[in-house]
Give the backbone structure.
Amino acid sequence: MPFSDPIADGPVIQRATERALSQQMTLRHVLHLAKEVRQKSEIPLVLFSYYNPILRYGLTKLARDAAEAGFDGVLATDLTVEESGEYRRAMAEANLNTVFLAALQVLPTG
């Protein structure tokens, strides 16, 4: 799901976001597209977004609508596990998997 302020994204995702936004891509449209894909395929679908559009849509409403559209999970790229309690509960109630990103911490040696 494109977001207007993709500060943490690399150049490929930033360009994809710009193209999607220029075509008026919305979260509702993404849900509609997922529903179409789900009618033809059982491939796992994960909604990939920043947390702000999810929160703005409404956690419970998004969880319900994403599950109805055929999504298997949701990845809120900028949401930490420590701050995700309400989000995880809403997704679990809709039987959606939650995905989190983790960064490897490289410690200096010697």
Summary: The mean pLDDT is 88. Residues 45 and 72 are 5 Å apart (CA to CA).
